Amino acid sequence: MMELICIDLEASGLGTKSYPIEVAWINDKTGEYDHFLINPESAPDWHYWDDNAEELHGIERENLVAKGLDIVNACKRMNKMLAGKTLISDAFEFDRFWLTRLFDATGIAPSFSMAGLDKILDREQRLQFNLLAKAQFRRHRALRDVEDIITCIKTVLFAGRNATTHG
């Protein structure tokens, strides 16, 4: 199987002024992973906060300020560990928006690229993925969500291989 690296982000909300507050990724092939909180006070204009989003992910802004990485260290850490890699997101438009927001705030260019599920799953497989993902209990914490995403992708890919060898 190809190298599968999935990423997930949690954010301050879904609006255009929202920003990333938690990042997690897992390399399914090597077992490498990382996850961290981001301190919104390390970016000049990151003030937007949606209480409904906090209810979903359960991360309080005070916790981000106390335990989060500053935005420059967050970008450098990702660039160092993910250079030249392609990261898969099941919510590509949202995750790309927030990663762009993060990197733009620092002036640092990402050393990696991102793609949606269509990079690795065909249309039918994406439908199967969506059904499986909806059946999961998502915790809305980035690392656990990435684990769930990888489980769904592997289930769909494995089912497809079985269908072609046994069908």
UniProtKB/TrEMBL annotation:
Gene3D superfamilies: Ribonuclease H-like superfamily/Ribonuclease H. SUPFAM superfamilies: Ribonuclease H-like (SSF53098). It comes from the Bacteria. This is Exonuclease domain-containing protein.
